[in-house]
Amino acid sequence: MIEQQYNDDKLHYAFYSGCCFQGTDARFFDILQQVFDKVDVELHLIPDAVCCGAGVIEERSELTSLSINARNMASAEKMGLPFYTPCSTCFNVISNVQKRLGEEAKLFDQVNEILAEDGIEYKGDCKLTHTLWMLAQDVGLEKLKERITNPLNGIRVASYYGCHTRNPADIQKYESSQNPTSLEDILKVLGVEIVDYETRDDCCGYHLTWPNNQLSQKMTSSVLQGAHKQNVDLMVTSCPLCFKNLDGVQPKALAAAGQDFELPVLFLPELVGLACGMSSSDMKLDFHNVPVNVRL
Predict the structure, then answer these.
(1) pTM over 0.85
(2) Nearest-angstrom CA–CA distance, 58 and 262
(3) What's CA 112's distance to the chain center, in Å?
(4) Confidence of residue 1 (pLDDT cuts 50, 70, 90)
(5) Burial code of 159-185, b = ≥16 C-beta within 10 A, e = fewer?
(6) pLDDT tens digit string along 81-110?
(7) CA distance 277 to 280
């Protein structure tokens, strides 16, 4: 097992990037590595990982969806490491597959029969985690606080979980899906002022982009307007897909709603990195669609 090969004080994870960290967002892998190095976390890419299907494959073949995700978890099990993904949709899909296979022995065996054709076995003891709980619970708030060299005091922040992290939170027994606090707990350590707003728990509409782009933009605009009404400096989300929507689609969504403002949106690791003393260049903030014109 890989974890037995390391005689250090670091936390080691089997890293499943998901599709959202490819292409123009490949920079996030570099950002994660820089930030996690500050808190003694090391990522090990899962070999031969495949797309989780984002809930789409199961519409055509549920068994295929269950099998490919069991295969990904089996790879992490073989590595002997907790399974970490920063993608909230991947976390949601894989968490629900794990739950389903843990509840239905016949289905569990059927999936393993398929995996056996490639010499793979899913044992069912894979621990899944996400950026939120890695930082808040595994690394821990006290250790994170020790690594803060640039506290972001006075910055007014709207926190945004998104749907797919929250829904399986109680499945994984990390926290309540109805009233999560991990994101706010992390933000408090960074020194920011957390501002409540009425659209905090609403969906940003990312997964509606293709079937109904107009409705997706309306939902995106609604979330942003709710935060903007509270005079926040920026919004922070732990979901990279929500970030892609709230930052990347923001100009079009607000224009369609007749709104004229810019609200900077940061992916949580970026803000953690800034609080740990890294520069805006290190965190590649120039890649943002909405300028981050805030003192950080």
Answers:
(1) yes
(2) 37
(3) 28
(4) very low
(5) bbbbbbbbbbbeebebbebeebebbbb
(6) 999 999 999 999 999 999 999 999 999 999
(7) 10
CATH code for the part of the protein at 2-129: 1.20.1050.140
Bridge partners (DSSP) listed for residue 128:
83
Closest by CA position to 108, among listed 128, 124, 132 = 124
**Which CATH number is associated with domain 148-287?**
3.40.50.11810
The residue extents of the domains of the chain are: 2-129, 148-287
In the sheet that 41-45 helps form, which strands lie side by side, from edge to edge? 41-45, 11-15, 83-84, 128-129
| Interhelix angle 105-116/88-103, nearest 10 degrees | 110
Could you tell me which residues come within 8 angstroms of residue 61 by beta carbon, excluding any fewer than 6 positions away?
none
Q: Are residues 132 and 272 in contact, defined by beta-carbon separation less than 8 angstroms?
A: no
- Grouping H, G, I as helix, E, B as strand and the rest as coil, residue 113 is helix
The whole-number average pLDDT for the span 250-264 is 96
Among residues 94, 242, 87, 232, which one has the least CA distance to residue 161? 242
Q: Are the CB atoms for 166 and 180 separated by under 8 Å?
A: yes
Place 5 in a pLDDT band, splitting at 50, 70 and 90. low
Distance CA 51, CA 131 (A): 19
